[in-house]
Amino acid sequence: MSKAQRTKSDGNMSAREKIREQQAAARAQEKRKKLVTYTTAAVVAVAAVGLGAWYSISSSKSEQAGADLAPITLQPDGSAVMAKAGVTQPVVDIYEDFQCPVCKELERVSGSTFKNLAAEGKAKVVFHPITIFSREPTKGNSVRAAAAARCVADGKQWMAFHDLIYKNQPAETVEGFKTDQLVEWGKEAGVTSPDFESCVTSQKHAPAVLTDSSKIMSAQSIEGTPTVKLNGTSIGEAAFSPQQLRDAVTKAAK
After folding, report:
1. 34 with 83: CB under 8 angstroms?
2. Does the pLDDT value for residue 30 go beyond 90?
3. What are residue 230's DSSP bridge partners?
4. What pLDDT, on the 0 to 100 scale, is given for residue 80?
5. Which residue, among 110, 145, 75, has the nearest Cα to 228 in the 3D structure?
6. Are 106 and 92 in contact (CB under 8 A)?
7. By CB neighbour count within 10 A (0-12 exposed, 13-18 middle, 19+ buried), where does 18 fall?
8. How far apart are CA 73 and CA 154, in angstroms?
């Protein structure tokens, strides 16, 4: 092979080698790009999950109840209106059954928020204890508790009794909320109504509880408890998130 031929062949080999080197470098660069992309995606995913978890926890965290309650006015139908003077809007209606386990959970999670919103003058909050159950022993339990609540004449005492009823809620499969228990919880709540004990033991308001419950459920299209309405519209699961509940009320007030 002549020198000229060798030079030409060597030149061709050099060119092929350069091409191979460039291709290898391109593949390496592509791998680095993919690695960066996957790593970034993983970091973003982890951050998103972390942010979602943080938001879920923070939005469902119960508020600390304020020291004072807004004035509470008791109504003939057994409802209790909690609002500062002059506050008429927005209106938060809570339809609850003392025997309802989910109502107890609502009270545990968002009870303080309902009270705080009223105390801050940001809403008129109305509690509607009703009986939604139709079978025993839950129906009887519910009626006895709601009837006993109607025996309380003072608003603040009513709220203290209301909270104690939920605290002592029996299982749905047993007879509970017995009249002697309700009388004792009334004393614990500081109820001072002179006829409270006789009113509870005689179940004076039991017929009215059933009648008013039927009327309220029909008029408000209540299919289950708890049902929380903001200016007449159900807010669904937001009622169980103190932050979402507060945000919804704040928005409605604008």
Report:
1. no
2. no
3. 92, 233
4. 98
5. 110
6. no
7. exposed
8. 8
